[in-house]
Amino acid sequence: MNPIKGHLAPRSALHDFLAPDSIAVVGASLDPTKRGYKAMVGLVKDGYPGTIYPINPKADQILGIKAYASLADLPGPADLALICTPAPSVPELLRQCGANGVKGAVILASGFGETGTEGARLEQELLAAARDAGVRIVGPNTSGIFNLHQKVNLLALDNVKPGDIGIVSQSGNMLLSLALEAQHNGQVGFSTYVGPGNQTDIGFEDYLRYLGEDVHTRVATLYVEGFRDGRAFLDVARETTALKPVVVYKSGATEQGQKAASSHTGALAGSYAMTVDLLRQAGVSVVQYSDEILPVAEGLGLLQQARGKRVAVLADGGGQATIASDRLAEAGLELAELSDTTRSRLGEILFPQASLANPVDVAGSTDTKPSLLADCMAILAEDEGVDSVFLVGMFGGYSIRFAEELLGDEMRGAESMIELARKTDKPLVIYSLYTPIKPPALRRLHEAGLPVYYSIEHAVRVLAALGERGHYLSTCADHDVPSALTPAPEMQAVFARARDEGRDLLEPEAKTLLRTHGVDVPIERLARGAEDLAAVASEFGERPVAMKVVSKDILHKSDAGGVRLNLQGEVALRAAHAAIMASCQTYDPAAEIEGVLVSPMARKGVEVIIGVSRDPIFGPVLMFGLGGIFVEVLEDVAFRAIPLSRHDARSMVEQIKARKILGGVRGEAAVDQEALVDLLLKVSSLVEAYPDLKELDLNPVIAYDDGYAVVDARVIVTENPVIEEADS
Amino acid sequence: MNPIKGHLAPRSALHDFLAPDSIAVVGASLDPTKRGYKAMVGLVKDGYPGTIYPINPKADQILGIKAYASLADLPGPADLALICTPAPSVPELLRQCGANGVKGAVILASGFGETGTEGARLEQELLAAARDAGVRIVGPNTSGIFNLHQKVNLLALDNVKPGDIGIVSQSGNMLLSLALEAQHNGQVGFSTYVGPGNQTDIGFEDYLRYLGEDVHTRVATLYVEGFRDGRAFLDVARETTALKPVVVYKSGATEQGQKAASSHTGALAGSYAMTVDLLRQAGVSVVQYSDEILPVAEGLGLLQQARGKRVAVLADGGGQATIASDRLAEAGLELAELSDTTRSRLGEILFPQASLANPVDVAGSTDTKPSLLADCMAILAEDEGVDSVFLVGMFGGYSIRFAEELLGDEMRGAESMIELARKTDKPLVIYSLYTPIKPPALRRLHEAGLPVYYSIEHAVRVLAALGERGHYLSTCADHDVPSALTPAPEMQAVFARARDEGRDLLEPEAKTLLRTHGVDVPIERLARGAEDLAAVASEFGERPVAMKVVSKDILHKSDAGGVRLNLQGEVALRAAHAAIMASCQTYDPAAEIEGVLVSPMARKGVEVIIGVSRDPIFGPVLMFGLGGIFVEVLEDVAFRAIPLSRHDARSMVEQIKARKILGGVRGEAAVDQEALVDLLLKVSSLVEAYPDLKELDLNPVIAYDDGYAVVDARVIVTENPVIEEADS
C-alpha cells in the first residue's frame, strides 16, 4: 500500500491558523439556527483541546464557556478567528484581530465581490484591513473550515471522521456531498477542509501548498470553480504531485472560455479543455465526473500507482469481464498479455474450462473455494507483464449466494489479498457486486485499507488514475525544460520598433524571428514594388510560387484579395502583383502596403497549427493541433503551459485524436514527429526569450516525412501600457 | 407518473411456461450446494402456489414435497421443467418432457456450443429433441429464470421483491448485481427475469415480446452480449417501445466488428456503434455504462417522458448547479429559457439575492423553509418553455443540516412534490446529496414513486433517456417508411448478367441504376476505345474532365494508374487515354478493360459517403458520413437499418459530429441537407427493390448548396449460392 512518502518542508503560514491552539468565535450565539452556535457545538462536541473564546457582547457564557464582549477583551491571543457577523462589520473586526495577534480569520459573510461593485469595494477594504493588521483571510463567502485531526470542526458536521483526504472546495454542497458519501462508504475520512470562497487573500495555490505539507493529508482533493492565479497553482501542483496525489474536479466543463484574444489560438484557449491539459501537465489527477471524486481520491490515497497501462482482469463471470474490458479500453488501458508461466500456474489451480487468457474467467472454479481468487491474484501480480490486478465479480458474496459454510474460506481469501497488497508493488483494485450490502469479507478488506468499488466504471477510473500517476512519476526525469534561448538584439529591436509603432510584427519580421532561432521557414523574398519582381522571378525560375501582400493594416490577406497562388515566371508575377495591389487598395484605401512576399509553393504534407497565447489566469500557453477543420470544427487540440519539456511536447503530439493522420493514412508517409517536437520546444523557448511576444500563430505548418515548413507566421506584440489621463 | 399504457395482444407462447401452473424440478436435490436444492428452496420459501414436482430417482420427498423417480411418473403434466442435470442427459429428458406435456424447459447445464464442436453437436441434438417433443427451451447454459409476481423464484434469490422491471440478462452476475443494487435502493422491484443462455431455441426477440405483453412489466431491461437475430429484435423492439420503455446495455463496446465485408462500408459495420444506432432507431433506450442500467430503468418506469430537451434546474447551491449544467450540455440537453412570468413568480417567494435565471439558485431562501423548493418546482413545471424539472441539492437533509424542527416542513415539501408529479405531465427528476443516508423525506418520495438519485451524473442520464424517449414517441408519426420502389426490368437484367458472370456491377452500370431511379449522377460518357474520344471531346468542349478506367478486374483504379483528372480538349484526352491503357495493362496484363469513363470535373463542395452493407445479424444497413478522414480516421458515421423513414434519414445527417461542416464553415455555404435526405431515402428503397444488391458505396458524393453529385458508385452483387460437391 501507499505510504505517505515525504513532505515539502513546512513553509506555509497557513499551519499557524489551520491547526490553531486557540480559536475566537466572533458572533458566537445562543440561537441554534446560527453558524455562531453551530461552530461552538462542533468544537465542544468534538472535544477541541485548545482554548475557545466565544465573542458575544450580550452573553456571559456560551455552552458553558466564558464569553467576551470583544476581541479586545480576550486574556490572550487567538490563533484563529471565525467571524460569523455580517459583511459591513468585518473590516473593523480584522483590525481588532490584528491587535489581538490573530493569525488567520475565516470570514463566512457573503455580500462582497460576488454581489457587484459595492461589494467589491467592501472586499478591497477588507483586504486592506487584513494586510494592515497582518491577518490572513480565508474567504469571505466561505462555508468555513475543519481540521479533524486537531478536532477543529467549525462546520459542526456529524459523522465525519478523521482520515487522510484533504479537501478544498468552492462549493459547500460538494463538501457536504463528499462527507455523506464518506459516511456511507464507512472507511474514508478527512484531514482538513477549506472553503476558499472569494480567494480574496488566500488562493487555491496556497491551500494546496498547505495540504502538500500537512502530514495528515495523503491526497489533496480540490473542487474548483475558478483559479485566481492558475500559473501559481500549476507551480505548486508540480511540486506537490511529486510527493502525493492531487485530485481536481474543475467545474464549467462546457463553458465557453474567455475570448480576450485577437487571434485564432486565443479563441480556443481559456477553455475547460485547456485547464485540464495544463493540470495534467503538472501531474494532477483530473476527475471528469463529480461522482468519481471520492472513489478516485480514496484509490489514489490507498493504492500503489501502477507502473504502466497493462491490467490483468480476474473475473468469476464472463459478462462483467467483458464490461471491464470495454471500460479499460475506453480509459486507454490495456489487457496485459499473460506469460506462459502465469497461464500454467493458473491452470494448475482452476477448472479445465477456465479461461486463462486475459480476462481470466474462473468459470466456476471458485464457487466452493472463493479464496482461490486471492491465489490467482498473487499469480497475476507476479507476472512481469502485468502492471495492475483487477478483481471483478462477486467476491464477498460467495457465502451469501452459495453456502454459509464458505464464509471462513472467504475471510481467508480476504486476508490473503491484504497480505498480497502489503507485499506487491502493484495495485490491486477490487470491484464486487456485493459492495452495496457490505458483507464481512469486503468490510475486512476495506478496514485493512483495500478499497472495494461499487461499480466497474468507478473501479476503472481508479485504475486509470493509478496508471496516469505512475506514468507521470516515471517520466518525471523527462520533465526538465530545455535551457532558455538568448534573445537576439536585432530581433529585440524589431519588437521595440513594432511596439513603438503600435503594430504587430509584419509577416517577414515574424519569419525572420523564427529563422534567427533555427526554425525551418522556406526561403521567400520581399518585393517592395513591381521593380523588384524581375529579380525575384529570376531567383525562383520555373518553380511555382505564392505571392502575399505585406501590410500591418491587412490582417485577413485572403479576404482582401491579397494572396495569389501557383504563379510561374515573371509575367505571371507582374500580373499577380498588379491584381493584389488593386484589390488591396479597394479593400482598404488607407492601408500602408510594404510590398509582397514571394515564396515557393509548399509541397503537399499534413497541415498542423501551433499557437501561443498568454492566458490571463495561466500565463503563456502553447496549443498544437492539425490545421483546418480539426481546429475550427473539431477543436481537436492539445495545450501545455510554457515552458515545455521534451516530454510535454511529445505528449501533446500523441494526445490529439487525429494523431493517426500524423502516422500516415491513405497511403501517405508518416510525418517526422520528432521535427514537430523540436519545433514546439523552439516556440516555447522563443516565447520565454521575448516577453513582448503576446500571441503567435504558425498556421499552417506543413509537416513532412523529413521535417516541416512554416508557411504562415503571425506574431502579436504586447501593447504598450495605456497611460491614463487624469480626469480634468 | 407513468402508467402502463397498454400491451401487445398476448401472442407469445412463453406465457405458458414463464408463468407456469406447475413446475417439475428435474434433478431436485437434498444437497444444499446444488441448484436442484436451491430452486426447491426458492419455490417453497416464496410460497409458489402451483404444483411442484421434484424429480429424483433416489429420494421420496424433498423439503417435504413428494418426489418422483422420473418425468414419466408424474400424476399430471408440468407447464415448466427446470433441468438441473448435466448436458449429456438433456436430450433424453426433453423427450420425456414432450411425453409429459411440458411446455417449456429451462436448461442450466453448460457444455454445449460455447465449448466447441462436440458441444455444438450436442446442442443441435438438444434442439432437434425439443422440436420433436414440442418443448420450448430456455438456455442451455442459462442462470435460470424467475417470475416474482407468480412466486416462481427458481434462482432462490433473497431479498428481491416483486416490481415492474423485467430483465433478460446474458450474464448471471449482472442480474445478481442489479438485484443487490435494487436491495440497496429499497424501492425497485422486478417482474420476470430470464437468462437466455445460448439462445438455442428462444432468442432475445422472443423474450422482449413476452416482456412487452407482460402486464407486470413496465420497463424491459436487457443485458446483451450478442443478438441471434438482430433484425427480428429490431422489429419487436419497434412495436414494444411504442408501449413501454426498453432499456438495453450492449456489451462489447470496444470490440472490433465482424469484417466479412469487401467494401469500405462493411469494415465499419458490425460495430458497437452500428448496433447502438440501430437500437435507437427502434426507440430503445441504450445505456452506455453498467452502473446506469438500474437508475435509467427505474426512471423510465416511474417518470413521464419529456416533451423536449429544455430542462429547468433548481438548486440550493451554485457548485452543484454548475455541475448539473455541464452534464446536461454534455448529454445534449438544454437549459430552458424561463419566461418573465416564471421569473417574477419565483422572485416573489425567494430572497432578492436568488438567481432567477436557469439554473435557479435559491441562495439560502429555503434554509428555513425547504418546502419552498416544491413551490418553485410547481412554478417551473408550469412554464411552457420547460420540458422537465431537475431538483439538485440537499433536499431531504435540511432537517439534518440546519435544524430538526424543519422536518415537518420538509415532509410537507415532499408531499407537494408527490402531488405535483401526479398533476403535471412533465418529469420531475430529483438528485439529493442526502440520498446515501436515506432521510425520511427522500424515503417518502421514493415510496410514492418519485425516484431520488445518488449522483448528478445518473440523474442527468435519466433526464436524457426521458428526453430521448419523448422525442422518439413524438416523432413516431414521421417513422413511416416511404413506399417501396418498383425495380426496373432492364436493371434486373443487369444484375442477372453480373451474377452470371460472377462479377460486380461496372461503374457505368451502377450509375445507370442510380439514374434510373432518379438519383443525380453527373453526365458522363463511356469511350470504349480511342476512336470514341473525338466525339467525347467535342461533347465536353473546354470543360475540364476526369477520365477513369472501367474494368471488372480493376478495383483500385488510382493504384492502377487508371485515373486522370483536369483534362481539357481532345489532345489531352488522347494522351490521358493512352497513358491509362499502358498503365493498367502493366498493372494487370490479364485485366479485361471495357473502356474509360469521361465526366466533367465536379465542382467543389463537401464530400460525403453513403454506404450499404448487409449485416449478418441486422440485415441491410445504411451508413452515412463525411468523406475522407472523417470516415477513415475519425469513424464519424451514422447507421440506420433499411428501410429508412424520412425521420431516420434526417436524424442520421444530424447525428454526425462533423455536422457543422454541412452547415457551412470557413465561409462556405451550407449544403442542401434535404437533398441528402432524399438521396438516403432513394438508396434505402433501391436496396429493398434489388435483393441482388449486396453492398453499395457512393464515395464520394459531393454535396452542394443546391443538390449533390454522385461522383463514384460501386455496387457489389450477391454471389450465387455455391453448390457444394458431394464427397466422393
TrEMBL record, chains A, B:
Keyword vocabulary terms for this entry: ATP-binding, Ligase, Nucleotide-binding
Pfam families, per database record: ATP-grasp_5 (PF13549), CoA_binding_2 (PF13380), Succ_CoA_lig (PF13607)
Domain CoA-binding: 17-112
Gene3D superfamilies given in the database record: ATP-grasp fold, A domain, ATP-grasp fold, B domain, NAD(P)-binding Rossmann-like Domain, Succinyl-CoA synthetase domains
Listed InterPro entries: Acyl-CoA_Synth/Transferase, ATP_grasp_subdomain_1, CoA-bd, NAD(P)-bd_dom_sf, Succ_CoA_lig_flav_dom, Succinyl-CoA_synth-like
GO molecular-function terms, A-Z: ligase activity
The protein's name: Acetate--CoA ligase family protein
